[in-house]
């Protein structure tokens, strides 16, 4: 699966348009998607790094879990726009 960083950037920026993110928050989410698509890291690892970039570890356990679920949902929505789906085996193309 070959995706250019430009295509990924366009889809991520379209998804997060008007969501009120700071430049840093947007950059963190773009980095997580690039980890998934370009580096082909597992979803759990991308969420781990996104949580770390966002300093979610300062939150209590319940809030951390809610944030991780939100991150997972957002990343899955962007993957869907790219025509991909995350599985335990890695990313697969969806038709």
Q: How many angstroms does the end-to-end distance come to? A: 14 Å
Q: Give Rg in angstroms.
A: 13 Å
Secondary structure: helix percent: 55-70%
Along the chain, the helix and strand elements come as HHHHEE
pLDDT average, as an integer?
A: 88
Individual helix count = 4
Structural summary, described in words:
The chain has 95 residues and is mostly helical. 62% of the residues lie in helices and 8% in strands. The protein contains four helices and two strands. Strands 1-2 form a two-stranded antiparallel sheet. A hairpin with a 2-residue loop joins strand 1 and strand 2 (90-93). Helix 2 (23-37) runs antiparallel to helix 3 (43-53). The longest helix has 21 residues, at 61-81. It is globular.
Short description:
The protein has helices at residues 5-16, 23-37, 43-53, 61-81, and strands at 84-87, 90-93. The chain has 95 residues and is mainly α.
Features:
95 residues, 62% helix, mainly alpha, two-stranded antiparallel sheet, single chain
Helix and strand topology:
Layout: H1 5-16, H2 23-37, H3 43-53, H4 61-81, E1 84-87, E2 90-93
Antiparallel strand pairs: 1-2
Helix pairs in contact: 1-2, 2-3, 3-4
